[in-house]
Every structure is written in structure tokens, then in C-alpha cells.
Amino acid sequence: MSRKKNKNSIPLDFSEKLVLGLSNTILTIFALVAILPCLNLFSKSVSIGPAVTAGFVYFWPNGFQLETIEYVLAKTSFLTSLKNTLIITVAGTAISMFTTITTAYPLSKPDLSFRKLFTLLYVISMVFFGGIVPAYMVVHTLGILDTYWACILPFAIVQFNMFIVKNYFEGLPSEVMESSAIDGANDLRTLISIVLPMSVPVLATVALLYAVNYWNNYFHAMMYTNSTAMRTMQLYLYDIISNSQAFAENLFTTSYGGTMSVNVTTDGMVASAVGLSIIPIVLAYPFIQRYMVKGITVGSVKG
Q1: Which of 28, 56, 118, 211 is deepest in the core (most CB within 10 A)?
Q2: Does residue 87 have a pLDDT over 80?
Q3: What's the predicted TM-score (pTM) here?
Q4: Is 8 part of a structural domain of the chain?
Q5: What is the C-alpha separation between 256 and 134, in angstroms, rounded?
Q6: Is residue 174 part of a domain?
Q7: Burial 278-295 (b: 16+ CB within 10 A, else e)
Q8: How far is CA 77 from CA 13, 74, 98, 228, in A?
């Protein structure tokens, strides 16, 4: 059965077709730039060792094996680093969301005393940073060096994220808040029952921003932790990439399953570690990505 032509469709002229074709081409190139490195990592992770060493692996596996992934999981500190990063990311995101919401909500109220002063203080702290040494001294004085708290508490609130949530709260209908107050609800009840359910897009967006920040944090984990047991995923990846020669030498002195495996190579091991490390964020992103654009754009309208 032939498809009926839509009577409301307007044919595109040459310039519109050209722009559409150019846009599709550019977007395709950007998609390939993002996808091809991931395909390269996956291919090196499961390809046979000689092919990886010889440089014959690009975007499709050459042979198939899982010994490299098994080696990374069993013979390196990948799982310990993953556990540390997951704890920091989950706990840090929860604490950051709590502090962000409880700060943004009062500042979104026009009748808050000294509202402009408090807002100015947050702006100043966002623009000016005290410095690395004072920050380290604060963490050291609190006695939380080489703990999870050292990677969480100094970043419990990001001013930019707080202002996004604050601006979103200010854009909510005031009539809803007034009706809630008439019904006898206090500010806490209004926040939990009215404001938060209406702010799911911006809250999901900010939660993802916090989670990615905690997950990718390298510098502060390096500065505030020093033991192997507290090594995060980013420190682990830096170690395995920068000390590839040491790992290569270790392959010749470590038994794997009772015999030496020719499939476990330095390049394959690095590719496996990096590829495994991005899986949690990749799995979480599809559940939140639909809120990203809406949450940021709506929350950034007001100044």
C-alpha cells in the first residue's frame, strides 16, 4: 500500500536542503568523534595480545579473548578503586544535593532577611578561591585526610549549581506557594511536597553534574589521600597509564592462571581499565539525560 502524502508538508527549497544536509553531516562527524574512541577501547580490550601489540587493532576486534579484562579485575586494584569512587560519588552527590536545596530554597524567597548580602557572599566565594594551601590546611586541621570525607566535604556545595536551583525555584508559580501557605503548610512542608516534585528536571540535572564532578575528581583525591586503600578510580587510571612500563615488566614476572598469558598486554590492559571505568556513568546517563537541556535552560533564565 502506497504511503499517502501529507497535505500539510511544505517542500524544502535548495538552501534549506543544503543547510539540513550540512547539519546532518556535522552531527554525524561529531557522533563519530565521540563513538570511535570508545570502539577503539573496546576492540583493544577483547582483541588477542599479538594483534594489539603489533598495532593492528583499530575499531573492530582482532580475535577475541577476555583474559585482559579478567587480569584487570583480578590482578590490579581496579575493584578497590571502583568501590572508593562509587562511595564518594553516591555519598557526595546526596550530601551536595541536600546542601544545595536547603541553601537555594531560602535564597529564592524575596522576603528573606539579608537575602542580597547572602547571595553576594556566595558570588564572591564562587569568583575568588582561597588557595590550595589554605584548603589543605583546613582538611588537615579537621583530621579527615586520607578518608572519604576529605573528597566529599570540601565540595559539598558548588555555587554555580546552587544558583541554577535557586533561579529555578524563583521561576515556579507563586500562586502555588501561596495556596500551600493558606492551607497551613510551613516552608519545610511546601519544599518537600510542592517545590521538589515540581523541580525534578533541574534537580536531576544538578545531581548529574555533581555525580560527574565527584566521579572525575582527580586533583583533590591526589592531594587529600595517600594510601593505596583510598585510591580512587582517576588515581588508578593515572597510575596505570603513566606507569605502563612498570606494568609491562610486571607481566613477565606474574603468573596468570598458572601460565603466562600472551593476550595480556600493556595497551590492552590500559584500554580495559579505561573502558570499564566509564561503564557506570554511561549506564546512569540515559535515565537523566532527558532532563539535562530543560533543567539547565529553565534554571538559567533569571539572573
Answers
A1: 211
A2: yes
A3: 0.78
A4: no
A5: 46
A6: yes
A7: eebeeebeeebeebeeeb
A8: 59, 8, 32, 8
